[in-house]
Specification:
CATH class: Alpha Beta
Strand content: 15-25%
Number of helices: 9
Largest sheet: 8 strands, parallel, barrel
Structural class: alpha/beta
CATH architecture: Alpha-Beta Barrel
Radius of gyration: 18 Å
Number of strands: 12
Helix content: 40-55%
Shape: globular
CATH superfamily: Divalent-metal-dependent TIM barrel enzymes
CATH topology: TIM Barrel
Order of helices and strands: EHEHEHEEEHEHEHHEEEHEH
Distance between the termini: 18 Å
Length: about 280
C-alpha cells in the first residue's frame, strides 16, 4: 500500500502505543505494524527517558493521536490551552491526524468516563460550534469517534443521525470505531450493519478495532482489555466490503497478552484489508 492517500492520513494496519508494551514493541519485525496512535494527554510535555522512547517510535512510524480529555460536549468552557498544546505536539512529532471522542468527560472536573451527549438538535449546534473552534486553533480538521454509551440522556434523534449531523455542521471528519458499533447495537438493540451503512464514506479517515467485556447476554462493556470478538471481526469485514480497506488501528489498553498475540490481530486486520482490495479489483 502507498504511504498516504488523499483521504486517509495513514494506510494499512496499526497498533496503539501504550507505555507497558513500549519496550517490547521496539523489537517487532519490520512491516508488522504500519502506523501507531497515542493519547496526547499521556505524552505532552513528557521528557527524559520516556520522551526519548516516544521519539524512537515517531521517527519510525506514521503517527495519529486520539484524545481523551477535550470533552467536546461538556458544558464547561473549551480547554483552548490543551488544543494549543496538541497543535505544538503534532508539529513536534509530525502527527498526521487528531481524533477525539464525540462525548464529554467533565464539567468542573474530570469524571474519568465518557458520558453520552444528548441526541438533540441543540446539542448538534453546541458541539459543532466547539469543533469549529478547535479546528480554527489547530488550522486543520479533526475526526470525531462514535463512542459506546450505556444510558442515553435524550434520544430525540437516533445515534447515527446525531453523529452525521455533527459531522456535517462542524465540517469535520469521522473516525469509526467498529467495536463500539457492536457494543451499542447489543446494548441498545439496533442492527449494526444498518448503522455502518449510514456512515458517510467521504468523511471516514480510519477505523478503530478493539475487544469488549460480556457482562450479560444483552450487555457489553467497552473495555479495550480483551481480544476482538468474532462479531466485530465480521463487521470489520463488512465495513471493508462497503468502504474499501480503510486504515484500521487495533486498540488494547490493559490486560496485555504476549506481543505475538497483538501482532496476530494486527495481521488479521491486514489480511481482511487485502481480501477486500482483491475483491474490489476482481469486480472492477
Amino acid at each position: 500500500m502507498s504511504d498516504k492517500t488523499p483521504q486517509y492520513p495513514v494506510s494499512g494496519a496499526g497498533l496503539g502505543l501504550r507505555r507497558p508494551i513500549a519496550d517490547k514493541l521496539k523489537s517487532v519485525p519490520a512491516g508488522a505494524i504500519d502506523f501507531m496512535e497515542i493519547a496526547p494527554e499521556n505524552w505532552i510535555h513528557v521528557g527524559g527517558a520516556l520522551g526519548k522512547k516516544l521519539r524512537y517510535f515517531t521517527e519510525r512510524y506514521p503517527f495519529l493521536i486520539h484524545g481523551l480529555s477535550l470533552s467536546i460536549g461538556s458544558p464547561a468552557p473549551l480547554d483552548e490551552q490543551l488544543v494549543r498544546d496538541i497543535k505544538d505536539f503534532m508539529a513536534e512529532h509530525r502527527i498526521r491526524m487528531y481524533s477525539e471522542h464525540l462525548s464529554y468527560c467533565g464539567d468542573d472536573g474530570h469524571l474519568y468516563d465518557l458520558m453520552p451527549i444528548p441526541f438533540t438538535e441543540d446539542a448538534v449546534h453546541y458541539v459543532a460550534d466547539r469543533v469549529r473552534r478547535v479546528q480554527d486553533i489547530l488550522e486543520q480538521r479533526i475526526a470525531l469517534e462514535n463512542v459506546s454509551y450505556y444510558a442515553p440522556t435524550d434520544t430525540s434523534m437516533n445515534e447515527a443521525d446525531f453523529i452525521i449531523a455533527v459531522l456535517e455542521e462542524s465540517d469535520c471528519d469521522l473516525m469509526l470505531d467498529i467495536n463500539n458499533i457492536v457494543v451499542n447495537s447489543i446494548n441498545h438493540q439496533y442492527d449494526p450493519h444498518d448503522f455502518l451503512l449510514k456512515m458517510p464514506a467521504d468523511r471516514l479517515r480510519y477505523f478503530h478495532q478493539a475487544g469488549h467485556y460480556v457482562e450479560a447476554e444483552d450487555l457489553r462493556i467497552d473495555t479495550h482489555g480483551a481480544a476482538v470478538c468474532e462479531q466485530a471481526w465480521q463487521l470489520l469485514a463488512d465495513a471493508y466490503a462497503h468502504f474499501g480497506p480503510v486504515p484500521t488501528l487495533l486498540e488494547r489498553d490493559f490486560n496485555f497478552p504476549p506481543i505475538e498475540e497483538l501482532l496476530d490481530e494486527v495481521g488479521r486486520i491486514r489480511n481482511l484489508q487485502r481480501e477486500a482490495a482483491q475483491d474490489t479489483a476482481a469486480h472492477g
